[in-house]
Amino acid sequence: MKKILPVIFILLSVIVNGQITLEKTYDASGTFVNLTNSGDKFYIMDVVNNQCRIYNTDHTLWKTINLPVPVNNYLYDIRYVSENMFTLSNELCLAYVYYAYNTTSEYYTFNAKVIKDDGTVLLTIPGCQYMSAFTTENSAVKLLTYSYDYSIALYTITTRVYNLPGTITSIEESEIPSGKISLSPAFPNPASSFIKIPYLLPEGTASAILKISDSNGRLITTRQLLNTSDNITVQLNDYPSGIYIYSIEPGTSPSGGVSTFTPQAGKILVQ
Fold first, then answer.
1. Full-prediction pTM beyond 0.85?
2. Same domain, 227 and 142
3. Which residues contact 80 (CB under 8 A, 6 or more apart)?
4. Residue 103, by phi and psi: left (phi above 0), alpha (psi -120 to 50) or beta?
5. Which of 4, 11, 167, 251 has its CA 20 to 30 A from that of 174?
6. How many domains does the chain have?
7. What would the pLDDT profile of 108-158 be if each residue is shown by its tens digit?
8. Is residue 172 part of a domain?
């Protein structure tokens, strides 16, 4: 018995130490990044306050960067929080995208900026909704930006290629839709009475499923989306104030089978 007990104790220790544990919960989208000089950090996008908040790996606040967003525009994305990518002077920089919605003609206008953490603007990119960084075989760093003009029925796309002075230290997944549903931001957001969610289903997809859940993961609404439409309006009168997550997931294909596109999600703030 004396020999068996230590073995049991060791096995229990391994099981306990191998458990998955929740470290921290943030009420915003976030991701890790490795900064050239400052090391690993975790940053979130605060849509309500137009901020990028950066935390140490122990989740203590390291830095807050205010993101100037014009009136009646909304923060859409933050990309490439970095040091020595957009400059060579160890300065903390990032790129961010914001958008406005034309309620009369019902189309979106996107714009992007690259700024230093003190707010200095390094680059303004009109119409830019997505961007991607790439290192060539001769170690040159390129920034590709994709600008859309949704004011016309057959919208146009403009690709711009910028040469960057620095290097890429953290590879971020490209945000360019490829084999995915095209999902524009819900509007208005924050909202109180209704929300409109524009979408474009992939070719060959007959329908999809819209799911809306509260911040605790409880499913609130399920709606079918058809390929014959490009948006859906959801009434919010019965929604208590709070944060909700919506997702568009595969439905059926024209042959009657289940579609296989990659689901996409967004966030709604109900006031």
1. no
2. no
3. 86, 93, 94, 95, 131, 133, 172
4. alpha
5. 251
6. 2
7. 899 999 999 999 999 999 999 888 888 888 889 999 898 988 888 777 889
8. no
